[in-house]
């Protein structure tokens, strides 16, 4: 059974009320249910974590050293500057898929820079919650022998 760690970054606990024209009306709880449902369909063991604190995210990634097959992460604002999260991913060697609810490449210039994208398997942006589902589907397909 594949072990997947899903991390939601800063301010994602406010989904559903935070700028719904950009981020949609689903709450983080709604999104987590969809993630868990798809993980169950794929027979994945899944852990979901959200934090507004960079160090807590680093600690969570490090705690999965040699204990998770993939990391699916929406670093949110940490995307643009968290070398600490980047270094934790590199140090653990966890295969990583970066997810964003909005299309960061069609927004403000500063949102287009990711310090994680170049070390990730891939980046999925602009498909709302479905980006997480796409990441799980990719993992399923890439691990079929």
Description:
The protein is an alpha/beta fold and 145 residues long. The chain has a single domain, classed as Rossmann fold (3-Layer(aba) Sandwich), CATH 3.40.50. Helix content is 35%, strand content 19%. The chain contains five helices and five strands. A five-stranded parallel sheet has the order 2-1-3-4-5, sandwiched between helices. Helix 4 links the parallel strand 3 and strand 4. Helix 2 packs parallel to helix 5 and helix 3 runs parallel beside helix 4. 35% of the residues are buried. The model has no long low-confidence stretch (mean pLDDT 94). This is 3-dehydroquinate dehydratase. InterPro entries: DHquinase_II, DHquinase_II_sf. Its EC number is 4.2.1.10.
